[in-house]
Amino acid sequence: MPSVGRRAAIAGIAPHLIALAIYTLLGVLLTWPLALNLTNGVIGAVGGVDAYQNAWNLWWVARALTSLHNPFFSPLLFYPDGVDLFWQPLGFSQGVLALPVTLTLGPVAAVNWIVLTSFTIGGYATFLFVRRVTGNAAAALIAGATFICSPYHMEKVIDGNLEVASIHWLPFYAYALFLLLDSPSWRRALATGALLLWVSLGSWYYGLFAAIFTGCAANIWAYGVIRTSASDQRLRRGFQQVAWGITPLIIWTLALTPALYALLTAGADETLWDMRQVQRERAADLIDIFLPSPVHPWWGPAIRAWRNQIYPNAVIWNVALGWLALSLGLLGAFAARRVSWRWSLLALACLIFALGPELKIAGWHTGLPLPYALIQDMPVIRSGQRPNHMAVMVSLSLSVLAAYGFVVVQQRFAPRASTVRVWGMALALIALVAGIDGYAGPHALVERRIHPFYTKLTAPDGALIPLPMYLYVNRSENLIAQMGHGRPIIGGYVARPPAYSFTQYTPGVREIRYGEVERQDVVSPGWPESARRALAAYRFRYITMDLQSGADVYFAHVRSLLAEMGVTTPVFADETLEVYAVPDTWEVTPVVFLGDGWKPLERQLDRMASASATGRDEQHDSERNGGGLHRWGGADNAIWLVNPYDAPIYVELALTLESYETARPVELWHGKRRLARWEVQRPVRTYHVGVTIPPGQVILRLRAPTTYDSYSRRDLSIVALNVRIADYVLEP
C-alpha cells in the first residue's frame, strides 16, 4: 500500500491533473474538429483572413527570434520601408509560447496550438488564482470553466482573432495582483509589473484593460482597508494600499517609456489612428452582457436576428458572459457578499468601462456619460476601437463570484458531502457551463495552401511584387505566400497600415499598381526605361499574379505594361498562379523620380518659346520632355533618389525649372540640411546640385514660397519641365 506521504502527494497533485485534463478536454470538444486537423486548417470567420494574418505573426516571431532579429520590426512588409510591429497586434507573447510548434509543425499548427492552449492554460491559471482566493479547489475548477467557456471567448475563437482569443495570461496577472494587494512587497510588485508587460505584448487591448482593472482593484482594496482600520489610521493605510496597487502600472509605464516617447514624438494619432469616433458604436450595449450565448447553434441564430434589428450590420458585439456563469456569479455576489463584495465591485467597475463613453440599452443611446469618457481622450487610449473587449475582465471577475456561488450551493444542499461527491457536483456544473455557455457546434475549418512555387524558390536575394497588392485591404493571401518564399513584398496586411507612398510614386511599381501608365513625364528617362531602372534598383525579382483573385481585367493591363518593359513570358504558370521574373540584364543605376507635392502632369506647347529664349540646353530639355510637359510645384515638393549600390554615391542632379509669375527663392533640403538655394526666374533654366547619398533611398524636399492662382485655385511656386540625373560616381 502507498505510504502516507505518497498518498498525501497524490492527493496534492490530483486536483491539478484533473483541472488540466478537464480544460484540455473542453478545448478539444468546443473547437471540434480542430484537434484532428492541427496542420491542415484554422477556425476563422471571413475566410480566415485574421486567422492567417495571425499565422504570419507567429511565423515572423519565430523567424525573428531564431535569426536574432528584432521581432517588433519587419523588413519583409511594406518594402523597402519595412513596418514597425510594436504597436500592432503582433501577439509576441503567444509567439514565444508557440515557438516550438511553429518551428516543427508550422504556423498553421501554431495558431491552433494557441487556440487550444487558451482553454488549457487560461482555465488552469484561473483555477490556481481562484483556489487561492476561495480556498476551494472544486469551486476553482468551475471558475476556470466559466472563464474559458464564456460566449465572449468563443466568439473570438470563431472570428480567428488570435490576439483577443488568447486569454492565457490574464488570470496569471490577476493572481499576481491579488497576491500584491493581499500582502504587498517589492518582489511581488516587480513580478506583477512584468506580468502586465507580458500581457500587453500579447494583446495591447488586454494590456490596456488589465491596467484599468489594476486601478479599479487598487481603489476597491483600499476601500476595504479603510473600512477595517482604526479611524486614525484609515487615511494612511488607504493611501498605502493604493500606492502598492498602482506600482505595477508605474513599472509598466517605465518599461514602455522609450516606446511611448517614440510614439508620441512620431504622432500617436498618425501611427495608431484616432478611433474616438467609433468607440461610441463599438462599446458594449448593456443588454448584450446578459444575452444567452449568441454563438450557440440552437438559439444563437434567433439572438443574432433579434440583435440585428436593433443594430443592423453591427460587428464584434458579442460580449455575453454566459447564463450559467451569471447565475452562479450573482448567487455568489449576494449570498456570499461578506467575502465576495470586492469582486462584485470589481466586476461592476469593469462592466461600466466595457459600456464605453455613453450608456446604451437595447439600442437606445441614453446620453448618460460613463467613466470611460474621462479617459478616452488620453493618448493611446483614444486609439482603441473596442471598449467592449473590457468584457474579458468582467468575465474574469465573474469567475471568482461563480466559485463563491458554487460554495453557497455546496454548503446549502450538500454540507456534509464527501470530496468525491463535491467534485462530482462540480463536474456536472462544468458540463452545463460548456453545453449552455460555451458550445458553438462543430466548426468549419479554413484551409489555405502555400503554392509549391513559393516553397521551391532559392534563398531570398531580392523582393517580390504580389498581385493584387491588397494595399489597405483586409486580405492575408500575400502573407500566406510569404510564409513560403520568405522574401520582402510590396504592402502587407497589418491592423493599422503605415503611411506608404512608395507604390504611389515609384516608376514601374506605380504603373503595376494602377494598371496604367503616363508614357511621357518631366523626369528623364521616361517610360519604360524609368520602370526598368527602378525595378532593378530596388532589386525586385518576381511579379506574381494570383489567378484565383478574380482580377482578370487588371492582370490583362499589367501583362501589357510588362510587355512594354520587355517582360513577355512568365517563368511559371498554372491555373492558380502566374509568375514573371524581372530580367537580371536590366541596368542597375541610380534613379530619380518625383513624390508628393507636385501637381498632375500638364501640357502647354507654347512653353517651348519661353525655353528657347534662355539658351540651347533649356531648348533641348523642353524638346526632350515632349514640348511643354510640366508639373507645377507647391510649397514643399519631394524628389526621390535611389542608390542601388552597397556604397555611397555622388549624384549630380539637373532640375529644369521656371518660377510662377515672378522670381522666387527655391531651396533644396535633405532632412535638416540645406543643399542648395537658387533665385528661380520666369524664363526656364536648368539648375545643378551635387549630393552624396548612402545606399538605399533618400527623399529631398524642394521648397519655395507660393502664390495663389485664382484660375486653377491652387497655391503654386515653380514649374518643373525636366528632372534628371546628369552624372554620378561611386564614392571611394
Brief synopsis:
With 732 residues, the protein is an alpha+beta fold. The termini are far apart.
List descriptors:
732 residues, alpha+beta, Jelly Rolls, 5-stranded antiparallel sheet, 22 strands, 16% strand, elongated
Report on this model:
It is a single chain. This protein is α+β, with helices and mostly antiparallel strands and 732 residues long. The protein folds into three domains: 4-438, no CATH class; 452-581, no CATH class; 591-730, Sandwich (Jelly Rolls), CATH 2.60.120. The chain is built from 29 helices and 22 strands. The strands form seven sheets. It has a five-stranded antiparallel beta sheet. The protein has a five-stranded antiparallel beta sheet with strand order 12-13-22-15-18, covered by helices on one side. Strands 7-8-10-9 form a four-stranded mixed beta sheet. Helix 11 runs antiparallel to helix 12. The longest helix has 33 residues, at 234-266. The chain is elongated. The N and C termini lie far apart (85 Å). The model is unreliable at 605-626 (pLDDT under 50).
